[in-house]
Amino acid sequence: MDDQLGRPVPDKWAKQAALLANPSIAPHIPPTKRYNAGNLRSMLGKHQMVVIKPVVGTGGHGVIKVWKSGAGYSYTSHSTTHEFTSFAALKSALDKKRKNRPYLIQKGIRLAKVGGRPIDYRVKYVKTEAGWEYRSMVGRIAKPGLFVTNLCQGGTMVTAAEGIRRSLSPSLVGAKKQKMRDLTVMSTRMLEERFPGVATLGFDYGIDVNGKIWIFEVNTRPQ
């Protein structure tokens, strides 16, 4: 089966709902809500910074970072930051950017960094005749000036070990890699149960400045 991509599940909301059903996985998923004015206001009030992204989408395209700044609001899309004095002005600008596509709002995570640039991790897990196998576990360092780490947007790939060593500590490499493996196995079990036929999974993990591991999303057609 390893030469087949398997069943695609593009809806981020559906995949996240499947993972939240497991109490061992749920604490590693950032609080997430559907995009609307009320949820955006309450999430910004609670978390100060959020990320909004299309419910269906890949490659970091359409991902926007939004935060409260003093008495106003700001958002960054790609490398451009816009500032607003009112919530209404922010919401209006985001709605234009969104073009009526369904979005979700996720608590912003302050990622550990390498040289001032955020890093996250991609774990590729594939179903073969012999069962599920790891194909890769890599770190992706954001291009200078960007907050998304996707390689198609100029991110730099390093080994997961190098990323953890440079952003956190050499002493944490083994434990963090093992935790990502454990979460991958548990999550795959939940996704396979909910979406029979999945065969190629790309897990996007982040490790925050305090060393906590977060699951940002799981791709069923990883790039």
From TrEMBL:
InterPro entries: ATP_grasp_subdomain_1 (IPR013815), YheC/D (IPR026838). This is YheC/D like ATP-grasp. Pfam families: ATPgrasp_YheCD. GO terms for molecular function: ATP binding; ligase activity, forming carbon-nitrogen bonds. GO terms for cellular component: cytoplasm. PANTHER family: BETA-CITRYLGLUTAMATE SYNTHASE B-RELATED (PTHR21621:SF0), RIBOSOMAL PROTEIN S6 MODIFICATION PROTEIN (PTHR21621).
